[in-house]
Structures are given as C-alpha cells and as structure tokens.
Amino acid sequence: MTKRDPGLQPERTALAWQRTALSAGVAAVLLLRSGLLHAAPLELMASGCALAVAVVAWLVGRRPGNTGAPRRVLLAMTTATCVTGALALAGLLLH
Prior knowledge:
Elements lengths: L7 H31 L2 H21 L9 H24 L1
C-alpha cells in the first residue's frame, strides 16, 4: 500500500478548473464569432455567459490551496452554463 500525498489532490483540482476555464473560453470565442458573423444577438449573449463561466473557473483554479469551489460558485456556474446552452440552442433554432 502506498502513502497518500495530500498535495496532489489540490493540484488535480486546480488543473481541472484550468481545463474548464479553457474549454469555456474556447466556446465563448466560437459563439462570439458566430454571433458577429450572423448578427445573432442570442449567440452574442451566450458568448457573454460562456465567458463569465470561463473567468470564474479560471479564478477558482488560481486560488492557493484549491480544494474546490464554494457551493454558491458552483450554483452560479451551473446556472450560467444552462443559460449559455439555452441561448446557443435558441440561436441555432432561429437561424
């Protein structure tokens, strides 16, 4: 049986938040590009929500001794992600 290194779990958590921030940032850029090319206000709003998720995830991932986000941050990110998806879907359906 190996000894558990307590320093690895916060590092894995921080890396997971960084990956979340990167993927939300890429989604925001793609939605922004699509919204600008097609003059679609719903996609522009969705890109703003995705960008907000990316910024929050990036900030949470940078916290020292990161062991996860507080419950209210996770609720806000879940809400923003759902709104982003709904706006993007509405934008696609209205094209």
